[in-house]
Amino acid sequence: MAQIKKLLIANRGEIARRIIRTCRQQGIATVAVYSEADATLPHVREADQAVCLGPAPARESYLVIDKVIAAAKDTGADAIHPGYGFLSENTAFAAACENAGIIFVGPNARAIEVMGDKAAARQLMATSGVPVLPGFDEEGASDDDLVRASEQVGFPLLIKAVAGGGGKGMRVVNSASEFTEALAAARREASGAFGDDRVLLERYLPTARHVEVQVFADNHGNAVHLFERDCSVQRRHQKIIEEAPAPGLDEATREAFGHAAVQAAKAIDYRGAGTVEFLYGPDGQFYFMEMNTRLQVEHPVTEMITGEDLVAWQLAVAAGEPLSKAQGHITRHGHAMEVRLYAENPEQGFLPSSGLLSHLRWPHEVARVDAGYENGDRVDDHYDPMIAKLICHGASRNEARQKLITALEALELTGIHHNAPFLHRVLNDDAFAGGELDTRLLEHRPQLLEANGTDPALLALAASQVFAANNASSSPWQSLQGWRPLGRRFRQTLLQVDGDLVTVREQDGCAAVGDQQAPLSATLTDHDITLHWGNLGLRARHARKGDHTLLLFVAGQAHAVTLNPSRESARHDEEAGFIAPMSGTIVALHVSAGDTVAAGDAVITLEAMKMEHTLRATVPGTVHDFHVAAGDSVSEGTLLVEFEETADD
């Protein structure tokens, strides 16, 4: 058996860091590779050595086989772990490792080739007794052949790229009239993504679930499964929530899934970690979909219910060791659930987002966090938009779900658009909570794509409590809030909530915002606030950003709240003016030098953290001069506008 001493990880981000953790535990040295865009990311810092592969585009760095092999040779790595994505299912890469005398932590090139060809895999599974969907997978079929076959397969059907993955090259077709256009689109997408425009046809199950089984095999004839996972909640045919075990299955069905998956692995003389994916119909029948010949993104949920380290299993098998456990000794405990945190905007068709993670605090205290980024890192648009996975385990499915909801509520993340609020809505959805799962859940429940707004009054009230608690001075003349020296004492706080001006007035345990008034109570800790205002309530995380700005995080959504900058500058500076409450870019000047303004008038708008913040006059006055122009970048504390308050008569 060949002992692995130094491992090169041919990947980036969270999976690279995940592999490094196991290697550290086993005393295996690690080599990271990176593109120029990734030079400062955590996986580069955490590895024992690091090698730059080239420019940011993956085709010039992570996907260049010769560069990866050269990096392994130059650093003395005796093994390469491909992670997932990039070269993980590339037959040429597996063969190149073998030719170079480097251990490839994965199956042999033949297994990758067979399962990478969806048509060949279907045919092999059918002859091996693994159930497959009715379909058409003839090699070299022309468009006319596919049109004729579509009538035999029946509608609805799925056009699927033979070399596909990640939802690319797939089209659902509901009728013959749609087929020709969908076929052309699927071929174009498949050709662009994989350099191969071949497609196959399969019967489409509109209400099917996506259930997959984790399998492992060694070089000694042993093959086992580590139970199943449900990955039905998807967007654009890509998974976003995974859980293990799959809810609602009886033990006989679970055993049938496991048996079929092991049968599939043995049919190709498989080695290492693999995942056999099935469609599970409402009639209780299941059908082979594909086999991923690598570790899956969602492997942590299997680790949490079994207590096994799947990366350690991979390394052992690659080194020639037999599986550490027989099927009967692998047990499961409780339930685990994972969400994929993506840099994307669900309300805009899941468009990817990129930018600087200007504020980031992971909820390590309540969840396992597999993250590729930390505070201050930049998310680049050259790669997959997944930035982290949050995983929770509980005695029951509901307990795991509730813990994951808590984890999303504890997440603090700004600087990019992300899907945490959307994931929070899905986890709280009645259908999901009740286990009513299928791959079209988001189509059935379009309301999940609609953002839930938080009442600005509640945000303002929460912010006023945090600002008051952090105000070091007890003198009403030095306080940020407006105290009156005569009559009954009250506190008035002028705030900008996500760019809008809000005034909070508090007196004798009550608070008023606009024409709404009710009793107010709040419980405040270093990071959290729970607030009750009449019949309304709010729970939020909070983080200060300088003296004047507060970030509130509600169900994963960030809100910026700023103490009014003109009032702040009038108190602290000899010349009154508007001070930049945070670093950002000037978007608009709403008035000109010399203009008089009334209380509430917009003066200048600043964009920061993907949001616009309009600074307004809180008292009547005159704008004397602008120190900035539209398009300028400014730092927090910069004097933006000179302003003079109108003297009282």
From TrEMBL:
ATP-grasp domain mapped to chain residues: 122-319
Annotated ranges, domain Biotin carboxylation: 3-447
Gene3D superfamilies given in the database record: 2.40.50.100, 3.30.700.40, ATP-grasp fold, B domain
PROSITE patterns (alphabetical): ATP_GRASP, BC, BIOTIN, BIOTINYL_LIPOYL, CPSASE_2
Xref: SUPFAM superfamilies: Glutathione synthetase ATP-binding domain-like, PreATP-grasp domain, Rudiment single hybrid motif, Single hybrid motif
Keyword flag ATP-binding: yes
Keywords: ATP-binding, Biotin, Ligase, Nucleotide-binding
Pfam families per UniProt: Biotin_carb_C (PF02785), Biotin_carb_N (PF00289), Biotin_lipoyl (PF00364), BT_MCC_alpha (PF21139), CPSase_L_D2 (PF02786)
InterPro entries, A to Z: ATP-grasp, BC-like_N, Biotin_BS, Biotin_carboxylase_complex, Biotin_carboxylation_dom, Biotin_COase_C, Biotin_lipoyl, CPAse_ATP-bd
Cofactors demanded by this protein: biotin
Residue ranges of every copy of the Lipoyl-binding domain listed in the record: 573-644
Protein name per Swiss-Prot or TrEMBL: Acetyl-CoA carboxylase, biotin carboxylase
Gene source species: Alcanivorax jadensis T9
